Amino acid sequence: MIEEKIYQEYNQWKETYKDLILYLKENDSLLLVRYDYIFEVLDYLFDKLIDDPTYTETENEIFVTGFLYLKSEFITLTEILNKYLNNSYEELNKKATTINLLLNVLDLENDFVADNNVDTEELKELKNLENDVRTALEKKETLSDEYYDRLDKVSQDLIGKVSEYHSVHELFLEIANELELI
């Protein structure tokens, strides 16, 4: 059964974060690129729920998944803004590359923490990388290519241990493409 309350919550959530979302859009932020397809799909499905009586349970599951992901991501962005950037959207945008790296690390941690095929050493390396990136944010340092190389290595190792892996971003890119939104 499709619970319409989540759609109202999405609308309220967008209202809560409208200033941040608008700032990211107006400044063509690298952070927004991370969420573009998810927003496109969610807005399409939101409109479809209102306009189309053939809205399916699968579409609802896609909506809920995307919305919960965005909520989690924006909680993390808010934490970063508060803890490291003095609530400055401008600083958030300036540090977008570093923040995207941190968010990618957190995504991998979340995706693989419960996977029995994953070695605890690789998860430990992800946690170490997360801590190093957070330290760099705290010290207002610019990250060297070494950090990105570390993420590439550990992500290749992790992904190589599972039969099939698709990030939320890949899935929503695929969905947006299927819906002809891009």
From TrEMBL:
Domain of life: Bacteria
Stated name of the protein: Uncharacterized protein
Species this chain originates from: Alteracholeplasma palmae (strain ATCC 49389 / J233) (Acholeplasma palmae)
